[in-house]
Amino acid sequence: MAPNANGTLSLPPPSADQAYVTISALEGGHLTLPERLFITDADPEKRTTVPSLSFLIQHPSKDASQPPTRIVFDLGLKRNLSRYPPAMQSHISQRQPVITSPDVAESLRAGGLDPARDIDYVILSHVHWDHVGTPDDFPHSTFIVGPGTLHLLEHGAPLYYPAEIFDKDLLPRDRTCELPPVSSPQTTRTAGALRIPPWQPLGDIFPHAVDLFSDGSIYLIDSPGHLYGHLNLLARVGPNRWVYLGGDCCHDVRILTGEKGIGMYDDGSGTGRLRSVHVDTDRARETLKKIGKLLRKGQGQDVEGEDQVEVIVAHDVAWREANRGRFWPGKL
Cys-Cys crosslink for 24: which of 44, 48, 166, 328, Cβ 3.0 to 4.6 Å? Predict the structure, then answer.
């Protein structure tokens, strides 16, 4: 994604037989966020009920007689809140109202897909409670997670995300592929029928990306800052058309546009120390700067031959309301 002669960003060009994917939004439940914890200059009393968006991604088969490879990115909320660890249930009580139906499985079924039969892969952007959903609904799917996720599920992410809020048995270990650390020797990994290639730079913006199908259609992006193992996904949906799924890079799109900053608040330790919702706020800011460059591409005027990128973050309530026709079985 080096700047082109006009100073704008260019994404990898398509191949002669380029594959394009289709993406459909999925309902994944709703939770309520106090604005003061997420953005600067917040109304201290304002609380907003927001979605936890998930997405169905379909990658075409080279054999037209075969069904596409189907991926779900993020699983939203569990429909049964009692299945969260007790320590997490206490946190969830502070995020009311919480809406758990329809969840991802119900959303898929409503459009004619069976999560137990028709989904090949589940990719989790990260393993906070409002993104992990109900993995048991996908008994034959292969799960793909970012580096360090399995250690996180067992040991937590001190100081602010202790082990007791995570479920160490969340994922089926025999069907889970954890991507290697970006600093490790790079080798391919096997996930179901896929041989996942090593991390490689994607232009001059993203230093670590995985070309999931090795065909330039879907890139998993290492997106550090929010939680260990945080992944974003960049997908090619048509000639010069891309979608960037930003997970929890931020919880309010105004941070991406520069209208707001990341909210900082007292961490409750009695020391006056400040924290944010991210495990590493500085790295989160750096990730946001990278994504912001893509966002500006998506907001520009359509120019023939220039890439356009639609950036979607998981809790964007305005995006959900403006795009109801793009939920499965509709598409982006």
Answer: 328
